[in-house]
Design brief:
By secondary structure, the protein is α/β, with parallel strands linked by helices. It has helices at 20-39, 63-73, 84-90, 94-101, 126-135, 152-155, 160-163; strands at residues 6-8, 44-47, 78-83, 105-110, 142-144. The longest helix has 20 residues, at 20-39. The radius of gyration is 16 Å and the shape is globular.
């Protein structure tokens, strides 16, 4: 065991010729099984809506769909991974979605939109979103999942103002 308390269970790809309802049924059963098995270990299962531009055919694309799946399974340790990058591409209105869904969010990730570079570039105002996230009482980690424009160390320069924040 590496000490991680969250496990991402992906929804997978669905072909144009495959039954969406059948895929959904199997996914729900798998989520219920995974959540049940993980609960005994104190692990939270997270599911992530992913945009179809980066991953065509991905089954789960919207925050409201993910929240509905979690509600249907009904496991207390099944939450949504709120990836700001994917949500902005598919839905936008990030602050309102964070406010609407905060109780069901198990993890947050960030990246710049539209190129998935550092979060200090692009169309998302992360300083504002960080204030929203703090005001909601989110106390988990915020993951950085992006493609640095340059070397890793240079790519982390955007985070300096946040490293000593209280």
């Amino acid at each position: 065991m590496i000490g991680n308390r969250k496990l991402h269970v992906m929804a997978g790809l669905i072909g144009a010729d495959q039954s969406r309802e059948r895929h959904r049924e199997v996914y729900l059963r798998n989520l219920a099984h995974a959540a049940n098995a993980a609960q005994a270990e104190g692990i939270t299962i997270v599911i992530e809506p992913i945009n179809t531009r980066d991953m065509p055919g991905f089954f789960l694309n919207r925050q409201d769909e993910a929240q509905a799946l979690c509600a249907e399974v009904g496991a207390p340790n099944l939450k949504v991974q709120f990836d700001c990058y994917h949500c902005q591409i598919v839905e936008g209105d990030l602050a309102m979605k964070l406010r609407r869904d905060h109780a069901g969010i198990g993890h947050i990730q960030i990246a710049g939109v539209p190129e998935r570079h550092e979060p200090d570039t692009g169309e998302i105002n992360y300083p504002y979103l960080f204030e929203v996230i703090d005001s909601l009482g989110y106390d988990g980690y915020i993951g950085c999942e992006y493609r640095p424009r340059a070397a890793t160390s240079a790519g982390l320069g955007w985070a300096k103002p946040y490293l000593n924040a209280t």
